[in-house]
Design a protein that fits this description.
This protein is α/β, with parallel strands linked by helices. Helix content is 36%, strand content 18%. The protein is elongated.
Length: 632
């Protein structure tokens, strides 16, 4: 058996044109972050994850709005690898009071559902361009073909008083929404005694949702600065209707306290003149603190006076700070957290509408005990990255294309393969010319000469037979090959085929999988009739564990099984049957595979389907050395 190999490494074509691969976008690691703007807490805790992936070399797209987007722009100023998109967020729930609270809650839940639907539709149009999606409180940021993760501590909700009996329904609905993601990251600790979120992050229904407790996340670094700020007030609650009079009351009481005080209002749009009369030598006011200023203020503070947002709880635990917690009125989550952590004497909690004495509350905070986290942010980030790595790992995939007299198809087929949105060093294309008498080989070599970035190899094989050609391809597989794809020369793999296949394998590809196929669409515009037949063929292949046009197999198994060289048709069925001895058959419902309809147009969809059925049922001895009916 003779074969010659042409490797694709020529920097310039014979006619002087730029190499083909220069027209293809280079693959770059990219991540999409959707960050809720309902309070700065989502932005501050997502910030630490964003920075980690910037450090790892990712290009980041941040989608948010309002103060959260402003904060992230300021914190990440100068980061050229970050781009921003403004997208409407959900309305703040639990606004108003009395009967209006329930009326607004009904309207806001309807609006939230609509916004989730719209944002999911938008995400679907861009998801293929990213290696993974990371959501913090954005329920529409997931995709069936891009690994999707959500960060949330709020598994169970604490509804308003008159809806408490329906809490099981809200919890069940929330978990159903979270299950649409590959993995839920819970920024807390597992266990009944050592955790920050209590019943919010620990639910008996959580087993239904893939999840991992990753631990606390704080964007505040340990700077080792002298603690010369006695009281740091961080007032960034997102319900502005409760904020103005409350801040003024705190400022008046703070001015009576001894020591240095700093207020961070958490809103870049606040009118500074409104609070100018409260400023003095011992009291400073910032509309918003970002970057080094934010880091230094928190590190320098001895005591924190803040809303009872969960991100603040994580910051306090990370830096071992004493605190006075003042939950936003009608915010049931904050009220629960303040009561839960106050009952355990970790922090002092006071209600805003009680007109409490600030000095007395701060004195009580001196008697609290510390929450000692089992691990902190650095270890939490490691847990997150390990999980993301597992679902974004790029398998080495080999594509074998046997070709015989395919001069009208081969260039388009190769161009589709070279345009895959997949790293050049994680896949290879092996075209085996099966003794073509037309220009197939010449065209393939020309494409190879234009390619510099993709591992394309042309193998000249002069002994006929599709099974022999496929076995020659198997002999040429790279040592690193993990999965091999066999596809016909008239089958087109769209640019997102390999990313989608890789994602599917990461989600389902345990050691029990051995061989499978994918859904296939007609390449031509064959109307409703043709598309209906192809959908029917997909169902048949899935049920009967057969295929046409494309097969995917684990390389180790394919190398050992190989194709029977005395079979010129139905060789793929025999190959699948033999591979199934070593694992399960699988079906990938992608929309990235299409094939020529020339055989169907020539023979007819029904007749060809019946013919394939008969051939599949024939005993192997009747198939040996029978000639294959070539249709061009």
């Amino acid at each position: 058996m003779k074969s010659n190999v042409t490797s694709c490494r020529s920097p310039q074509t014979p006619n002087g044109r730029a190499p083909y691969s220069q027209t293809m976008p280079r693959v770059k690691s990219r991540a999409l972050f959707g960050v809720s703007s309902l309070g700065l807490g989502h932005a501050t805790r997502s910030l630490v994850v964003i920075r980690e992936y910037l450090r790892l070399g990712y290009a980041i797209t941040v989608v948010s709005t309002g103060n959260a987007l402003t904060f992230l722009r300021l914190e990440l100023a100068g980061e050229v690898q970050v781009e921003y998109r403004d997208m409407p967020d959900y309305p703040p729930l639990e606004r108003g009071s009395g009967w209006r609270l329930y009326w607004y809650l009904f309207l806001d839940l309807l609006a939230t559902w609509r916004i989730i639907r719209d944002e999911h539709r938008i995400v679907q149009t861009i998801a293929a361009e990213y290696d993974f999606i990371f959501s913090d409180g954005k329920y529409g940021f997931h995709s069936p073909w891009t690994p999707s993760f959500i960060l949330s501590h709020q598994i169970a909700f604490v509804p308003p008083k008159w809806l408490r009996e329906a809490s099981w329904l809200t919890e069940k609905t929330n978990i159903a929404a979270l299950r649409k993601f590959d993995l839920l990251f819970i920024p807390d600790y597992f266990g009944p005694s050592m955790n920050l979120a209590g019943n919010l992050s620990h639910s008996r229904r959580l087993y239904r949702c893939p999840h991992r407790y990753v631990g606390i996340l704080s964007s505040y670094q340990h700077l080792g600065l002298k603690q010369d700020i006695d009281y740091l007030f961080v007032i960034s609650g997102y319900l502005l209707e409760h904020k103005g009079s409350f801040v003024r009351d705190l400022l008046e009481q703070a001015n009576k306290l001894a020591g240095n005080k700093v207020f961070v209002l958490g809103n870049a749009d606040d009118d500074e003149a409104e609070y100018a009369r409260y400023r003095n030598d011992t009291l400073q006011i910032y509309n918003i603190a970002v970057g080094d200023v934010r880091q230094q203020l928190f590190n320098r503070a001895k005591v924190i006076i803040s809303r009872a947002g969960y991100t603040t709880m994580m910051d306090l635990a990370e830096h071992d700070k004493r605190a006075l917690l003042i939950p936003t009125p009608n915010q049931s989550e904050q009220e629960y957290l303040a009561a839960y952590l106050g009952d355990q004497n970790y922090y002092v909690a006071r209600r805003q509408n009680e007109k409490f004495e600030l000095a007395q509350a701060l004195q009580a905070s001196e008697q609290t005990r510390r929450f000692e986290p089992p691990w902190k942010t650095t270890a939490s980030l490691r847990r997150i990255s390990e999980c993301i790595d597992e679902l974004t790992r790029q398998h080495f995939i080999s594509i074998i294309v046997p070709a015989y007299n395919e001069e009208t198809e081969i260039e388009a087929t190769l161009q589709h393969l070279l345009a895959q949105r997949y790293p050049d060093d994680r896949y290879e294309v092996i075209l085996v010319d099966n003794g073509s008498s037309d220009a197939t080989l010449a065209i393939a070599k020309r494409v190879a000469q234009q390619c510099t970035d993709v591992r394309l190899r042309i193998v000249e094989h002069h002994e006929g037979g599709v099974s022999r050609a496929k076995n020659v391809g198997l002999d040429k597989l790279a040592v690193a090959s993990e999965w091999v794809v066999f596809c016909d020369a008239d089958t087109r793999l769209a640019r997102n085929f390999l990313p989608q296949l890789n994602t599917w394998l990461n989600r389902h590809g345990d050691d029990s999988l051995s061989v499978g196929t994918t859904s296939v669409r007609p390449a031509a515009d064959c109307g409703v009739y043709g598309h209906a037949w192809f959908r029917a063929y997909d169902v048949i292949h899935r049920l009967t564990r057969t295929s046409f046009s494309i097969q995917v197999a684990r390389s180790q198994i394919a190398r050992g099984v190989r194709f029977r060289e005395d079979l010129n048709f139905a060789e793929d069925l025999n190959f699948i049957q033999e591979c199934r001895r070593y694992g399960r058959f699988f079906f990938v419902p992608t929309d990235q595979v299409s094939t020529s309809t020339r055989r169907f147009d020539s023979i007819g969809y029904l007749r060809l389907g019946l013919r394939w059925s008969i051939e599949a049922l024939l005993p192997t001895r009747f198939k040996i050395n029978r000639k294959y009916d070539v249709i061009r």
